[in-house]
Amino acid sequence: MNSITPIPLRAAPDRVAYHRTELALILSLYGRMVAAGEWRDYGISSLKDVAVFSVFRRTAENPLYRIEKRPKLRTRQGQYAVIGTEGQVLKRGHDLKAVLRVLERKLIRAVD
């Protein structure tokens, strides 16, 4: 008798990640800031409770800004946040586009 033993599939660990539309908004801003000479590198982390898009002026430095997505905060202050170098929350909210405006203001100042 030939019996086939099914191989149990390991469930992928639950991780928070950015959706394609969210990344499009972030990368659009990133491209404009790179063109203005403000930002030079980025990193993306998908962790259990948070997805983080880190922005760097130089690769070897600490991030200038972190754009975080925390779905557990969706019903409270909002799942998106922009965090500065010192860990201060610059903007938090439910709408990513509105939260990113705090960084777009810096782009307007850089061009002037």
Separation, N- and C-terminal Cα atoms: 79 Å
The residue fraction in helices comes out at 25-40%
C-alpha geometry: globular
Mean pLDDT level: 85
Strand order of the largest sheet: 1-2-3-4-5
Quickly give the structural class.
alpha+beta
Low-confidence stretches: none
- The overall number of domains is 1
Order of helices and strands: HEEEEEH
Kindly estimate the percentage of residues that lie in beta strands according to DSSP: 15-25%
Q: How many helix segments?
A: 2
Tally of extended strands?
Answer: 5
Q: What does the main sheet amount to?
A: 5 strands, antiparallel
C-alpha Rg (nearest Å) = 18 Å
Q: What does the model show?
A:
With 112 residues, the chain is of the alpha+beta class. It has one domain (20-111). Helices cover 29% and strands 23% of the residues. It has helices at 20-35, 96-111, and strands at 41-46, 51-56, 65-69, 80-83, 89-93. Strands 1-2-3-4-5 form a 5-stranded antiparallel sheet. A hairpin with a 5-residue loop joins strand 4 (80-83) and strand 5. Helix 1 packs parallel to helix 2. It starts with 19 loop residues before the first helix and ends with a helix.
Please write out the topology.
Layout: H1 20-35, E1 41-46, E2 51-56, E3 65-69, E4 80-83, E5 89-93, H2 96-111
Helix pairs in contact: 1-2
Organism: Pseudaestuariivita atlantica
InterPro entries: DUF2794 (IPR021252)
Protein name: DUF2794 domain-containing protein
